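Thread: "does anyone have the structure for this chain?"

Original post by V.I.:
We have the sequence but no experimental structure in hand. Need at least a predicted one for the grant figures.
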Amino acid sequence: MPTSPPRPAGDVRIRLRYHTVHGYRRAYRIAGDGPALLLIHGIGGSSTTWEKLIPELARDHTVIAPDLLGHGASDKPRADYSVAGYANGIRDLLGVLGIDRATLIGHSLGGGVAMQFAYQFPEHTDRLILVSAGGVGREVTPVLRAVSLPGAELLLSMLRLPGMRGQVGLLTGLMKLLDTDLGQDASEMLNVVDALPDATSRAAFISTLRSVVDWRGQVITMLDRCYLAAGMPTQLIWGSRDSVVPVRHAHRAHAAMPGSRLEIFDGAGHFPFHSDPDRFCALVDHFIRTTTPADWSPERWRILLRKGRPGRPLGVVAQAHQRAVVRDLRVASERSAT
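Reply from O.Q.:
Generated one for you, tokens below.
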């Protein structure tokens, strides 16, 4: 049967909608028709981070980009801001929308949420696309480690003062001029500060951050359960100069996730989909077209769990990172988001 050609990206209409779930208002952007593609933003961000990509991705998909609870136009209550809590919230939003399965694209914190969603709800997950994802190793930018400390609320409020904001802007410009890795991401990180206009927003941000980061670094890991990704089509995307979550985490995850694909955007920072949106959308399209949705079954899940994590060598890349993986597992195992 012939298929109709995809609609031009300019014809796609993005709608901002709201649903109240468990008494809290959840905002989300939705566009297009076809198989569901769920976009999950990073910490301090919102669905607007995907705004320039949605028209292209929605040409032959139903694209849903939620504002996670505590972010964007969603409510910001005193609530559960854990990775597992976010996975539950996404499941409930998809239920409200009548969507049974989706391919998940998660960036940074959103990557950790996507992995947690696939772990908790594999029957609802078609594929995973993880972009500079958290939850792979302990290392993370010292900036976020510092913001997890006591007194962060005052620090964030001071950064919004006109004089302070100007000085930080000068420092950001200097880092870019010196071509540092942090300079690649500094302006994007300042946008996070700009997206926290009041004390309620800042409190939600800090609660979310402290659920995944402390002064030593990231406090959760997905490495102990990566073997369960066997049969789950997974695409990893990273920037070679990511100053927030180092690119070595990409190689670590690739080695630990059976059958995963890895794409490195040379010269890009923590937001590779902003650095080269055309390449990013083409990669997503190619990945979806060349893979079939995961075929999950309870029996297969039980078999994987009974076998446990493989003890055999995982290849050359894994051997290069094996000591770091063991260390990360030991530090994070007791605080895993299970």
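V.I.: this helps a lot. The chain is about 40% helix and 15% strand.
O.Q.: and The beta strands are 15-21, 24-31, 36-40, 62-66, 102-107, 125-131, 213-214, 217-218, 234-239, 261-265.
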